[in-house]
Amino acid sequence: MRLLVCGGAGFIGSAFVRRMLGKHPDWEIVCLDKLTYAGNLDNLLPVADDPRYSFVRADIGDHEAVDAAIDASGGIDAIVNFAAETHVDRSIAEPEAFLHTDILGTHTLLEIVRERGIERMVQVSTDEVYGSTDEGSFCESDHIRPSSPYSASKAGGDLQVLAYFATYGTPVIITRGSNTYGPYQYPEKLIPLFVTNALEGEQLPLYGEGLNIRDWLHVDDHCDGIEAALLRGTFGQVYNIGGGNERTNREITQIILDELELDWNTTVRQVADRPGHDFRYSISCEKASRELGWSPEVEFEAGLRDTIRWYRDNAWWWSKIKHHTEEFADWRNRWYEDRPDA
Ligand code: NAD
Ligand code: TYD
User: Fold this and answer.
1) Which residues line ligand 2 (CB under 6 A)?
2) Mean predicted confidence (pLDDT) in 320-337
3) Residue 269 per-residue DSSP state
4) Does residue 179's CB lie within 6 angstroms of at least one atom of ligand 1?
5) Percentage of the chain exceeding pLDDT 90
6) Could you give the domains of the chain?
């Protein structure tokens, strides 16, 4: 199998590249990534010398550049698309890049799959497209009702994927993963932001009362779910990939404080809530279990504690981002500096 992995220099995409090269001796992977602020070749250092791996810097919205990458590789069997703008808060501050990549970029890849007769494409999507629900869990046939510019853009990508299947019979599969945690996650998202702030003696900016609920999935389980969809999924189908670990943000914060032996009152600062903050995400993964033979395996608290220790032991990785890139400092100043208390 020769795979084109788009967005493979980000958090989940790089885990997928590392993990699949480890699991499949006969796979070759071409990683294509624009290297936005979130893309980082340090994430791919463990495979940098593997002859089965190569890297191309390109935008998924640039048809010619993606074509050229495929030609140069000698042709590919499948595309797995992780490339996206992914941070909800940034989508609130500046939505445009989300439309460019998450909708138009996805469309460009669909055109390339159609034109070149590529055998299959997996579109990596998110449970956030369903929107928030106070009770019950969404299944794949439920309507989507995204509420942030991020989730609306991802939903736009999903709808285009499904339209290509219905209209042209394009061989596409969608996975909708839940909130993912693990090593190498850009430290703007809840868990790496809070862990690295805590390690540096900075406050943890908890939005509102911290009662919002997310379903947490270990990155290895997420990658295995995407692999299962790639190998065993049915074209035109959507598969939910969730962790089955619904926790409030307060609970996540408390585990981080416990592991690092810190005190809530001196470390946590409750700050003004995120506008339009979705209260709870929840998905049912029965279809992935039944049709793909996939279920999550990592026990949540052990996985989270291992992850916290990974950030503690790999300060070289995140301190480069937090202290030596303008993007991170600009974002922190814009989003957190003048933020009032809750
Ligand atoms: P990330 O932000 O860490 O990485 C995104 C990667 O895409 C980066 O390497 C970036 O450089 C690249 N990229 C962005 N725009 C691009 C473009 N136009 N062309 C080529 N490359 C581009 O994201 P992540 O957390 O690894 O998420 C990967 C995918 O999984 C996304 O599609 C996201 O919507 C989805 N997802 C993420 C989560 C989560 O909790 N992180 C949960 C469910 C689904
Ligand atoms: P995040 O990691 O941004 O993922 P998403 O918004 O895609 O679910 O946020 C996870 C939860 O943590 C969400 O309810 C918002 C909350 N949060 C904070 O309380 N403070 C923060 O600084 C961040 C980034 C998130």
Assistant:
1) 88-89, 179, 189-190, 193, 205-207, 212, 214, 249, 274
2) 97
3) E
4) yes
5) 100
6) 2-181+216-241 (3.40.50.720)
